Structure prediction request, 749 residues.
Amino acid sequence: MLSYLRRSLVISAIFIVLLGLAYPLLGTGLAQLAFSHQANGSIGPDGSTLIGQQWKGPEWFQGRPSATIDAAGKPSPYDAMASGAANLGPRSRLLEKEVARQAARLRREGITPTNELVTSSASGLDPDISPRSAYAQVSAVARARRLPVAEVRRLVASHIHPAQLGFLGAPYVNVLDLNMALAALK
Amino acid sequence: MDYFLTILVLVALLALAWRYLGSYMAAVYDGRVSWLGWLERPVYRLLGVDPEAEQSWQRYAGSLIVFSGVAIVVTYGILRLQGVLPFDPEHLGAVSPALSWNTAVSFVTNTNWQNYAGGSTMSYLSQMSALAVQQFVSASVGIAVAIALVRGFSRKGSATIGNFWVDLVRGVFYILLPIAFLSGIFFVGQGAVQTLAGPAVIHDHLTGFTQTIPRGPVAFMEAIKQLGTNGGGFFNANGAHPFENPTGLTNLFSVALLLCIPVGLTYTFGKMVGNIRQGVAVLMAMTIIFGVWLGFTSYAESQPNPAVAAAHVVSQKGGNLEGKEARFGALPSALYGVASTQTSTGSADSAYDSYTPMGGFGLMTGMMLGEVSPGGVGSGLYTILLFALITVFIGGLMIGRTPEYLGKKIQAREVKLAALGVLVMPLVVLVITGIAVSIHAGRAGPLNAGPHGFSEILYAFTSQANNNGSAFAGLSGNTPFYNVMGGIAMLLGRFAIIVPVLALAGTLAAKNVVPAGLGTFRTDTALFTGLLIGVIVVVGGLTFFPAVSLGPIVEQLSHGRLF
Prediction:
């Protein structure tokens, strides 16, 4: 019994040093050397392409609704410190109301709602939308910026990432990349 | 079409893992691999363990229990002290006692149920040196128990079943550590973060939007979280967070990682008992159950979400996208969900709470079958072998003969131990769920109203008693009631099964082998696979049908109603 206890303590200490310090620290060193951009969060001058932002106003392409809440429990969309989903069930009255509210907001901005633009993502930080949801916003964005619709449409088309290796996941448009290109148009 | 291709690639990867990882693992536990001897030998010296000396099942179980107890205390200690320990760039301070207890038990039992929000509760040190360490260790313990049981079958007249300390160390060094390290590099390359630099504050010049982005040593924890069928992620959003699971490729890779050891172990089993076909029969049972559940759940998630449909604002192209990420889409998310719930991993790349009623049914019932298809690392194999014993027992009753499995006579003691191991989980789930819905502290948990609220409670205890760790995450679990009861469910679900399994290993190892005769019921055939599936589904179905009827089934049937 005592020998079990002594061995348990010794092996726990060994594992903490090897698996709890050497493994992640060696990994961090290697990651920083080989992939420093990714390892630090894929962060550019205007944010991370992996972490979605809240885009306000018709002159920007919008991302998906985000259900993140701040420490006080208040809605705080795209709060990266509090990733998470809405967790509303498939027969939730609250979910129905929220979807209707998002659709009404989009319509007010002249955007025909699409599936992703009215449903919230799992992380609350989804940086992407589907090509369909990007195209749905083209005319509204073009109108707000007084740009030719065809030009904005071309911009969207050039920002579609196909599914990885042609079949993994879904094709998507990164909203930050698209908006940065949009800002550079003028 | 793309989805079929995704599954085809997954099957190909798993076929390789089955054959090569499987035979490698057999070599590791037979002591035929020694390329890390330079690391291994000093460890045995420090421990005072003779790697050649073996243990009886009682000593094996005793070592395992004491070690796991110490692991709980050490993990608890680190969480309580994180405020004064290094690597705490966000100055998060100590974790509360009830939450530290729940979390320590959760990671030591390979459950990884998380009543805390990852990024904003745990310091980098706690994530690396308390939680991720247990992700390695608990996985290795699970595999060790499975190997001990397999030795019970493969040996004759033996008083010992192996050495716990050696199995523990070899599992970590030779299997988990090398695969996790390579996978960690891959995750970083795809975009997962790995840094000690603390959060980044960004300011978007286009809109003036300011955001604080938490970071940390994520990628290498992600690797062992998946590989060890643990599931506890660095961030609250788990595998949906772009820093944990950045691309479609990492999504598929994550699924392959969590399936590779449980699948490979069926080859290890066949090899160690001297007949690969025995392992194939078990693997086929796992695969068929998995395939049926995958098809069912994928179809359910390709359908509209009823609450979204009730708003009458969009046609739901692409299926149920509430709580799913755009880069994955509904179907690959369902694949991840089924793989994660049926391997006792419990990680999530989408919000399981928002799955369609039948999608959620698929995830929940996948766990209720006992985590055998293919189940957690080690635990999947030893649990399905318990079901195999019950299957040969029922087969024996039908033909009026003493049942045998792999040449061992299965007698009263073995059947009792197997039945005990199989019945612990449903008992824990149903009794604790019953308590939870009877008292105020339990009913205060759910976020959603109506049958879905009940589903949240049922799912929580199903998940914890099966050491899965996934959740219908609307449930507010960080309360004294859920922290304490969850801890009990996780402990019983782990050790009240492991001890009977090791006892079984001991009695089987001591038995002699009876040569197969004309009347022997062969267990390496499709007939046996079919019977085994029948037993698993009937036991799970009969036990849980009433409970599930009150949750997802009534939810599916209440057409046109919202709650």
